[in-house]
Design a protein that fits this description.
alpha/beta, 2 domains, about 375 residues, five-stranded parallel β-sheet, two-stranded antiparallel ribbon, about 15% strand
Length: about 375
Amino acid sequence: MSFFSRIVLVAGFALYAALFGEFFLRAFSPQSFIPREVTGAPYGVRMNKPGAVYRQRTPETSAVVRINGQGPRADREFSLEKPAAATRIAIFGDSYFLGYEAPIEEIAATQIEADLRAAQCPVEVLNFAVSGFGTGEMLRTLEAKGLAFHPDVVIFQWHHSDPDDNLRSNLYRLGASGLEETGAVYEPAMGLRETLEANAAYQFIANHSHLFAAGRERASRFIRRAMAGHVFSRATTTGADVSAERMASETDIAMLARAEADAKTAGALFYVVDVPGVQSRARFNSSFRLLPDRLVSRANYLSPINAFDRAASNDRKIYWEKGQKHLTPYGNAVLAQMVAESLLADEAARTALDCRAGEARDRLAERSR
């Protein structure tokens, strides 16, 4: 057999294997397509690509993600100055707060805004969350962009992936004078991403091939774990396996403290919201387990774990069970109601947000039914 014939034979087998794998996955194990469109921000981290519109599809759901011209997930633009008689909440987090796998009207940020407006709080919620963010990237975005919009309340997400995300980004360290910037820029593979996104053939394959989607997800998970030192761990993004978890470091805690100090200096209140890990449809574990008790016992550290436990049932999902397992619209509603009720129960927050209604809890309870 000639060399050319061997090449043709190998190529034929490879094509057959690829086609077989594609049809097998489509028939028996449909994959999820969870694109994210990010770009480098002028302040050295990622941001949502302004004006991006893309669809996420899983075997359970489909949702369009729309980014406004400034970077937040929103269907409108925001002025830097607050409108007359309006108050603002600025939210920072990763794909959970960004609202992956949910339409904009059903994500937590939108529902927090709706719940507070129902309680006669004239509030706008600006969603600065970006998929993959850790605390360091949230802090950088707060200081470089978020505070310019004059928020009255700042909310940071805390997820069990944050210690690993912070280790990868390496944006801050503890020095002799406290928390210091390392001078690092964290825009992983941004040049390659932008090159591929400009390639029509790649985009077609990435948006339609189940075999490619399966391989890309496994490769991405391996790289993230390797960068955080978990390459031999079986820990997953669900939080079900806690055997290899990294507790929050003093640097992580210092970043939260600096964000709180930034908010206070700007005249805003600061809260940290727990996004629990999911172990089963009705079992969850708080991501606050990675933080010291002296923090999570504070009134401005809010966890929905009790609300999730009460809301959980075999008939309703808090988290999607396929795809990347983000919050369902129901899960977002439970989280949003907990946040809204906590703010309304805090006199300082009610004052900061100019809330006028006393019957807020009854209204929120009615909305949740």
